[in-house]
Amino acid sequence: MATERHRVVLARHGETEWSKAWKHTSYTDIPLTETGRERAKSLVDEMAAFDFALVLSSPLVRALETCKIAGLGDRAEIEPDLVEWNYGEYEGITTAKIRETVPGWTVFSHPSPGGETAEQVAERCDRVVARARSAGGDVALFAHGHVLRVLTARWLEMDPRMGKHFVLSTGTISVLGWERDTPALQLWNAAG
Q1: Which of 13, 24, 144, 146 is catalytic?
Q2: Residue 29: what are its φ and ψ, rounded to 5°?
């Protein structure tokens, strides 16, 4: 169907003090660093190349600020399903610190006490994917690293844990689209 041939542009927010320090950041609302704002500015030309039918953003300030600086803030709708994976008790802690007590821990392979499971994040992402596929044109999503990795896995009809294979840097864009009738990855982790 023609309505399914549009693209979904994923924009991970720019750098924050916690992302710079590799701390897991879900619900803690932290603004961009100056470097993060500069990276968001570098997305302006990339975003201008699209005619978006829908622009959605996580409600958290780091995603909203990136969206605004990238030139789409006036068109953005808040989408609560785009908030970052809830890390529960691991909020603000690095993977290295968690692995001191849980060897081999990753958010994709182990539980986060008091946080979300991969399946819970996938449920949210499935709703966003359905909304994007029915938008009738290109869609921009401004959000966070782990939720966008799960969303990509779900777009590609994969188990949410397969998101572990999609490394995503701050201040980058990625493009999801189609290869004939098959959901496909068209661009990944590109800096503006």
Answers
A1: 13
A2: -90, 95
| Among 65, 84, 91, 116, the one annotated catalytic | 84
With the CA atoms of 173, 179, 184 and 187 taken in that order, what torsion angle do they form, in degrees rounded to the nearest 10?
A: -20
H or E element that contains 176? strand 172-179
pLDDT in tens, the chain (192 residues): 344 479 999 999 999 999 999 999 999 999 999 999 999 999 999 999 999 999 999 999 999 999 999 999 999 999 999 999 999 999 999 999 999 999 999 999 999 999 999 999 999 999 999 999 999 999 999 999 999 999 999 999 999 999 999 999 999 999 999 999 999 999 999 986
pTM of this prediction?
0.96
CATH superfamily of this structure's domain 2-191: Phosphoglycerate mutase-like (3.40.50.1240)
**CA-CA distance, 148 to 115, in Å (whole number)?**
17
13 is catalytic: yes
Q: In 10 A of CB 110, how many CB atoms? A: 14
Tell me how many degrees the CA angle 106-163-29 measures, rounded to the nearest 5.
70
CB neighbours of residue 72 within 10 Å = 23
Instruction: Report the chain's C-alpha Rg in angstroms.
Output: 16
Domain ranges of the chain: 2-191
